[in-house]
Write a structure and sequence with these properties.
Keywords: Chaperone
Largest sheet: 2 strands, parallel
Distance between the termini: 25 Å
Strand order of the largest sheet: 1-2
CATH superfamily of one domain: HscB, C-terminal domain
CATH architecture of one domain: Up-down Bundle
Family: Belongs to the HscB family.
CATH topology of one domain: Monooxygenase
GO cellular component, one term: mitochondrion
GO biological process, one term: protein complex oligomerization
Radius of gyration: 21 Å
Shape: globular
InterPro entries: DnaJ_domain, HscB, HscB_C_sf, HscB_oligo_C, J_dom_sf
Helix content: 40-55%
Structural class: mainly alpha
Strand content: under 5%
CATH class of one domain: Mainly Alpha
Length: 279
């Protein structure tokens, strides 16, 4: 009974509206926004455009922030057969866009774990071949711009284990772990043990205080959480590789919590108090 009541308390704390703040401790909301890439990634690398943000120079900027509320994506109504772009890839799904790196398609036909460096090389090769600036204004240029945006999103998604898992569950198994209509994680009760563990971490962050000691405690928490994330990614890969969809769903939910903790810890500053986890 005590465990059940505590789990209920944990769930209430984790789902409270982000507009509610504690008067005792300031709460920092870690809500993240990530706009869907519309411009070619290579355009962001051009030094001749000084008005671009410095952070856009680095490839990691494409997926430094994660969105946990993505909706089912469509790869554009125009397929590679109808797009008037020479050498356009097969856009049936994100895996078919990168045939050199992912020739066997999604798990369980191929491992969940991806060679991100190889994926990156193929991504740059595709964008160099299909760059919209190679075409004059007209239907082909417009199609190339749309195709470039699709390739950007596919690369961003497949490069990130959490986004990759959410994509696989949604697109190939009809499970949206971000949905609130019963088709996602809410279709099954959240693990009480996970809820209590997350609540304990949240309380520990709220109680670190200030000063150098607080900074050292946060550093330790970051290392501990990195291990949690690493373990979740490994368990997620094993579930997908075995075709265990329900197991993958559960691990995806767990990973989403720990990634949220990681984001909060990364943004923590002395005097901030606690963080509110977005799941």
């Amino acid at each position: 009974m005590a465990t059940s009541l505590r789990a209920q308390r944990a769930f209430q704390r984790l789902t409270v509206s982000s507009t509610v703040q504690s008067q005792a401790r300031p709460i920092h909301t870690t809500t993240r926004k990530l706009s869907t890439p519309t411009a070619c990634f290579l355009c962001r690398l051009r030094p001749s455009r000084p008005n671009r943000r410095t952070s856009a120079i680095f490839p990691s900027a494409l997926f430094a922030q994660r969105t946990f509320t993505s909706t089912p994506s469509t790869l554009n109504s125009a397929s590679s057969e109808t797009l008037p772009v020479p050498n356009a890839p097969d856009t049936t799904n994100y895996y078919t866009i990168f045939p050199q790196t992912l020739p066997n398609g999604p798990p369980p036909s191929s491992p969940f774990t991806i060679d991100v460096q190889a994926l990156r090389r193929e991504f740059f090769s595709l964008q160099n071949t299909l760059h919209p600036d190679k075409y004059p204004p007209g239907p082909t240029k417009t199609a190339a711009e749309s195709l470039s945006a699709i390739i950007n999103e596919a690369y961003r998604t497949l490069s990130d284990p959490l986004l990759r898992a959410q994509y696989l569950l949604r697109e190939f198994h009809g499970i949206d772990v971000t949905a609130e209509d019963g088709s996602g994680a809410g279709a099954q009760p959240l693990d009480p043990e996970l809820l209590m563990e997350v609540m304990d971490v949240q309380e520990a962050i709220e109680e670190v205080g200030e000063g150098q000691e607080a900074v050292e405690k946060i550093a330790v928490m970051k290392k501990e959480n990195d291990e949690r994330v690493k373990g979740c990614v490994q368990a997620l890969a094993e579930a997908f590789d075995k075709g265990d969809v329900e197991g993958a769903r559960g691990e995806c939910v767990r990973l989403k919590f720990w990634v949220s903790v990681a984001d909060g810890l990364r943004e923590w500053e002395p005097g901030m108090g606690g963080i509110r986890l977005i799941h």
